[in-house]
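stage 2 :: seqdesign
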């Protein structure tokens, strides 16, 4: 695979390979097509609302569950100018089940399962696992990244406060 980054993240201290570019603040957010919970194509990237994109390996793991719950709670108080999207390689059915079980209605869950297009474009695809690594991206209205965090140890939490602050700043 092109553009591999060996050792870019770890899982329980074991190095893994990320595929795709390492994006940074100021880069254009790649436009990718994912699946929503109804199996419809959903485009992410480009211009629009300010978005917090919370990337998790699987909603059915403890840290991913907590991360997605936290952003769902935060989304309710961020106002209409900021959208929160959770991306994982989970099947859309699993994402819908998780949303229902956790009353998660303030966020949008999108699946990268079909083509891993998000992972390849945003540099979160874990080659060895065919999952997305934990990361946070804030995209401004013009489609530029204003905050990027690749969490180096997959089992650790991201910096929630920094991401939320960056989104609020981009929306002001």
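stage 2 :: out
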């Amino acid at each position: 695979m092109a553009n591999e980054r060996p050792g870019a993240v770890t899982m329980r201290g074991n190095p893994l390979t990320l595929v795709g570019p390492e994006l940074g603040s100021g880069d254009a957010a790649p436009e990718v097509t994912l699946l929503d919970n109804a199996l419809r194509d959903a485009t992410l990237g480009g211009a629009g609302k300010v978005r917090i994109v919370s990337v998790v390996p699987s909603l059915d793991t403890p840290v991913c569950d907590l991360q997605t719950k936290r952003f769902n709670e935060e989304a309710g108080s961020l106002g209409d100018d900021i959208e929160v999207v959770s991306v994982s390689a989970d099947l859309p059915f699993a994402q819908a089940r998780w949303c229902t079980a956790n009353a998660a209605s303030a966020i949008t869950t999108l699946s990268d399962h079909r083509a891993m297009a998000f992972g390849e474009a945003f540099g979160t695809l874990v080659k060895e696992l065919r999952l997305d690594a934990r990361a946070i991206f804030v995209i401004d209205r013009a489609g530029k990244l204003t905050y990027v965090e690749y969490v180096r140890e997959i089992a650790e939490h991201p910096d929630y406060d920094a991401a939320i602050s960056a989104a609020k700043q981009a929306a002001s």
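stage 3 :: structure notes
- Residues 36 and 110 are 5 Å apart (CA to CA).
- The chain has one domain: 19-171.
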